[in-house]
Amino acid sequence: MATLLIPGVLRPEAGGSGRLDVSASGTLRAVLDEVGARWPRLERRVRNEAGELRRYVNVYVDGEDVRRLAGLDTPVPAQAEVQILPSIAGG
Amino acid sequence: MTVLLAIGTGKGLYLARSEDDRRSWRVSGPHYPMNAVYAVAIDQRPATPRLLAGVTSSHYGPSVATSDDLGESWQEPEQAPVAFPADTEVTLERVWQIAPGPAAQPQRVYAGTQPSALFVSDDGGVSYQLVRGLWDHPHRPDWGAGFGGQAIHTVLPHPTDLATTLVAMSAGGVYRTGDGGASWNASNTGIKAYFLPDPWPEFGQCVHKVARDPEDPARLYAQNHHGVYRSDDGGGSWTSIADGLPSDFGFAMVAHPRRTGVIWNFPLTADGERFPPDQRCRVFRSADAGATWEALTDGLPAEPFYPSVLRDAMCADDAEPAGVYFGTRSGEVFASRDEGESWAPVAAHLPDVLCVRAAQV
Question: What is A2-86's CATH topology?
Answer without folding.
Answer: Ubiquitin-like (UB roll) (3.10.20)
